Predict the structure.
Amino acid sequence: MASSAFRFEVEHTDATSQGRAALWTTPHGVVQTPAFMPVGTAATVKGLTPDQLAAAGVQMVLANTYHLALRPGADVVAELGGLHRLMHWNGPILTDSGGFQVFSLAKLTRVDDEQVLFRSHLDGSPFALSPETAIRIQESLGADCIMCLDECPPHGVSPEQLQAAVDRTTCWAMRCKEAQQRTDQALFGIVQGGTDPVLRERSARGLVPLLFPGYAIGGLGVGEEPSAMYTALETTVPLLPADRPRYLMGVGRPIDLVEGVLRGVDLFDCVMPTRNGRNATAFTSRGLLRLRNACHQRDPRPLDEECDCPVCRQFSRGYLRHLFLANEMLGPILLSLHNVAFYQRLMADLRAACRADRGTEFRAIQLARWETSF
Amino acid sequence: MASSAFRFEVEHTDATSQGRAALWTTPHGVVQTPAFMPVGTAATVKGLTPDQLAAAGVQMVLANTYHLALRPGADVVAELGGLHRLMHWNGPILTDSGGFQVFSLAKLTRVDDEQVLFRSHLDGSPFALSPETAIRIQESLGADCIMCLDECPPHGVSPEQLQAAVDRTTCWAMRCKEAQQRTDQALFGIVQGGTDPVLRERSARGLVPLLFPGYAIGGLGVGEEPSAMYTALETTVPLLPADRPRYLMGVGRPIDLVEGVLRGVDLFDCVMPTRNGRNATAFTSRGLLRLRNACHQRDPRPLDEECDCPVCRQFSRGYLRHLFLANEMLGPILLSLHNVAFYQRLMADLRAACRADRGTEFRAIQLARWETSF
């Protein structure tokens, strides 16, 4: 159970969409939603210091239980004071359950209703993950918000496999809730069911009675068409309690954030801003900018003339291109920083649009500006 | 010639050594000497933002003419506003002449008194570097302090070769002085001569009458024993005018900075703090710390309990070790930042020791604390 350290207050719901502006209070501060969490897989958002994250407007970060359990180990994180002290990030943190990575990254050795047996993708050493160990590990890591262990099948499995994953996820959610001991962590249930509205409803009907303090939507952004994802959100979000945060896991592109918010999603995470940053691709108010292109060689302009982030205030496209061509670390660092700031500003703009009952108008304006490059 | 934008004022000379505290005014601000310049080879101190450099106490940085001339090209740097604007570093900058890298890094095709013909180490494309082009390039880059083209022979060449390099360096220095057009850059002569006191004197006698606003000592830290380097400093420094800055190029270890300052050196540069940082090695008040070692796994202490840098205030040895084992960029970033801050504090401490007439006492204390690990 989550203690009164958590509170979710919807301030305003957009009159033109399902979008909403809310305040989510956690033990490490208040998150203004809708919010985007940069991904700090191994307890570090790649290339950025906590100070830089805060300066970019980040409120909350995500860390991956699977990676941390393998290295340095949950016990080491606990001994070093938990994730907040380890990373020196004093804001809210969310950890996933490790399930997604176990099913996508590790070499599975056996999966049954009891647990998942797998081998580490790092060195092949054997591990077991059950609902109970997923909770125990996340309690050692000490994030503010933790996730139930779920089974996230790959895109395109049979309806029978999808339904089995839904039912196993519901069963595991009950065991996770039962296993939870700490009262200062919000444990979210995860709705599965792919793009099948019947299975989404089956999943939600199993989880909502468990009264989780928030609900994640898993199994999207895994290869289906964006339109199918948006339709799945339209069927899933209304099944979830309106007075609790809704978190769309692992999504996505800027346009996905807009479409998600307008369908009532409050929280997002994705590696795109940092991964694209490392690959010399910048998000801007006019679309994507590929910094390795020769056209930027002598360009004194900032990445985005409408951006007030530290990178756009200080550096030219020509310099950033040079850094990438010279394989200098500062290139990935600065582009990651800009991209994270871009995502944060987009979320702040979306929040303002919801408060002003201009959600659909905001979407139309953004779509026209980004053209087809996002 | 250097304009009155430059001024070098010796505030105090240590009663116990040749060490001195001075203020060096440049067009981009005052440098408190003795000072250490982190190396920003390709117009970036690897992994660190200008804000982080400033926070670490850095006053002045160095950039490499050879690398910048090859990529992105001096014309591109000029078109993007010169080095200061390019890097967004508003403090003083020094560029070397490119000579050292041409002789050590490039594939030489022909060297004569007129110029050096070589091929880029990047793609084999042909370049020529003469005293005149070295100045022209450095004027395009726009640093506050620039260097004459010199010939820096490798350690261990014959006395005849060493003397030829001295004489060619003197000849080139005259041409560099002649070629200089900008009046807002301090052009330094470079004394060569290896560890041979006769050749050092020959070099200084050729250069001092040219009345450069400062003098660099080249050809040290290239493989000779530290004691031989210190002896060479003892013979060379007194040959240089006391009212101008003395710059020991490319040196070195913390102990070398102490020994250099006590022999009257004002300026240093070296890749050690950043290179060691990238290799998981930290400089601390008690010696070197190798972060990959298993003993640091669960250590909650900062790198250096006497250090007040942003890294030591925020992160544990255990976390930093984890970052390196996980190949996370933040490891090299944070260790580079700490090491640069360590070097800056060492220089500030040396400066204070000189002002207090405690130079030799400071050396004794440091040697005892660092033991043999530096």
Summary: The interface with chain A takes residues 42-44, 46-51, 67, 71-72, 76, 79-81, 85-88, 297-298, 300, 310, 314-316, 318-319, 321-323, 325-326, 328-330, 332-334 of chain B (CB under 8 Å). Residues 253 and 374 of chain B are 7 Å apart (CA to CA). Chain B is about 40% helix and 20% strand.
